[in-house]
Amino acid sequence: MEALTLTTPALLFSAISLIMLAYTNRFIAYAATIRSLHDKYLIKKDSVLITQIQNIKQRLYLTRSMQIFGISSLLLCVLTMFLIYIEQQIIAVWVFGIALILLITSLAFLIWEIQISVKALEHHIKDIENN
């Protein structure tokens, strides 16, 4: 196995940064949707709104988990670079491996969140098709 160099974990910086930007945009969109649903619910206490609120709440928590795992991955990439710098190669390899697992976990949560989002949109499509 080749030695881990400073450039290897650094390569993930741009990818993780773009992923975090996408996650943050999702979070902001959910916040706006929640505020809108809240206002609608205060006007008309509809069971459909309750279902939408529950759905968005689940997606919001998944997005939070995605962000936590993504940030943790980035943090461990930085730690990996520090460990390489102080010549702790074996520990650096293990920390970098954990960083990759955290990034994979973050992306798996993204897939789960997308599945829930599609189901929510399917309800709207079904409503349009029925009318």
TrEMBL record:
Transmembrane parts of this sequence: 12-34, 66-85, 91-112
InterPro entries: DUF2721
Key words of the record: Membrane, Transmembrane, Transmembrane helix
Protein's UniProt keywords contain Transmembrane helix: yes
One Pfam family in the UniProt entry: DUF2721
Protein name (database record): II family cellulose-binding protein
